[in-house]
């Protein structure tokens, strides 16, 4: 934090992510058809807005400058991933099952102590993290109270047992 800058209030959240995509229908198929977001609005064949629940939108998709474009190269700057926070472990397991049933490859899965996370790519090559937080009282802490996040393997079979 720079000197003299007031911190943002604790209730501040990132409201939505807006992605440039090559094929709007393909992107909607992934975010709605696989992950389960609901299309709340479309702007013809060039943009769509999707939400979980009644919010106006959590994800915007557009082809305004990217229709038919290639995915960014892995060594380029840009968005690393969009992290989608699920409300609980059972919800994370249900979306994992849909991802696997859709034939989408996972890039990784990790237990971070504070959360359980699954990593994959959308059809345009954008990174997606699907995760659930553990209750704050269960977060790993050092003797001084500092947060001690880890990156341990996540047992996907144990997670999937939540929805079997």
Outline:
The chain has two domains: 15-68, 2,3-Dihydroxybiphenyl 1,2-Dioxygenase, domain 1, CATH 3.10.180; 80-164, 2,3-Dihydroxybiphenyl 1,2-Dioxygenase, domain 1, CATH 3.10.180. It is built from three helices and nine strands.
Strand content: 25-35%
* Major beta-sheet overview: 5 strands, mixed
- Estimated structural class: alpha+beta
CATH class of the largest domain: Alpha Beta
- In whole angstroms, how far apart are the ends? 46 Å
Structure description:
With 164 residues, the chain is of the alpha+beta class. The chain folds into two domains: 15-68, 2,3-Dihydroxybiphenyl 1,2-Dioxygenase, domain 1 (Roll); 80-164, 2,3-Dihydroxybiphenyl 1,2-Dioxygenase, domain 1. It contains three helices and nine strands. The chain has helices at 24-34, 89-101, 156-160, and strands at 17-20, 38-43, 47-51, 59-62, 82-86, 106-111, 115-121, 127-133, 152-153. The strands form two sheets. It has a five-stranded mixed beta sheet with strand order 5-8-7-6-9, with helices on one face. A four-stranded mixed beta sheet has the order 1-4-3-2, covered by helices on one side. Strand 2 and strand 3 (47-51) form a beta hairpin. The termini are far apart.
């Amino acid at each position: 934090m720079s000197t003299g800058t007031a911190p943002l209030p604790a209730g501040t959240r990132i409201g939505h992510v807006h992605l440039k995509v090559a094929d709007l229908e393909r992107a909607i198929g992934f975010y709605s058809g696989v992950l389960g977001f609901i299309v709340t609005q479309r702007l013809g064949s060039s943009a769509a807005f999707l939400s979980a629940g009644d919010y106006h939108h959590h994800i915007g998709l557009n082809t305004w400058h990217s229709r038919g474009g290639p995915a960014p190269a892995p060594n380029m700057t840009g968005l690393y991933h969009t992290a989608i926070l699920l409300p609980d472990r059972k919800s994370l397991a249900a979306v994992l099952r849909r991802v696997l049933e859709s034939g989408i490859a996972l890039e990784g899965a990790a237990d971070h102590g504070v959360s359980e996370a699954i990593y994959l790519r959308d059809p345009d090559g954008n990174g997606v993290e699907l995760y659930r937080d553990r209750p704050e009282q269960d977060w790993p802490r050092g003797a001084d109270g500092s947060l001690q996040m880890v990156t341990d393997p996540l047992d996907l079979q144990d997670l999937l047992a939540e929805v079997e």
